[in-house]
Amino acid sequence: MDVAELLRRIFEVDPLACPRCGQQMRIVAFITEPRAMGLTGSTPSSTERTYLA
Asked: Which residue of 2, 6, 26, 37 lies most exposed, with the fewest beta carbons within 10 A?
């Protein structure tokens, strides 16, 4: 069972359904580098620190 199927069962929503047309989407790539997502800092921001404290 893949992750999409687990999410579909738990939350009763299809994570791969297109929100515009309802057609089935497919995963074409995974981002594995934090820099590609803009996560370059090693410490939480000041707003995150207030929630972690």
From this structure: 26
What would the pLDDT profile of 13-44 be if each residue is shown by its tens digit? 888 899 899 899 988 888 788 777 776 666 55
Residue located via tokens 């893949």: 2
CB crowding 13-49: b at 16 or more within 10 Å, else e: eeeeeeeeeeeeeeeeeeeeeeeeeeeeeeeeeeeee
| Domain residue ranges of the chain, discontinuous segments joined by + | 1-34
Rounded CA gap, 45 and 6, in Å? 32
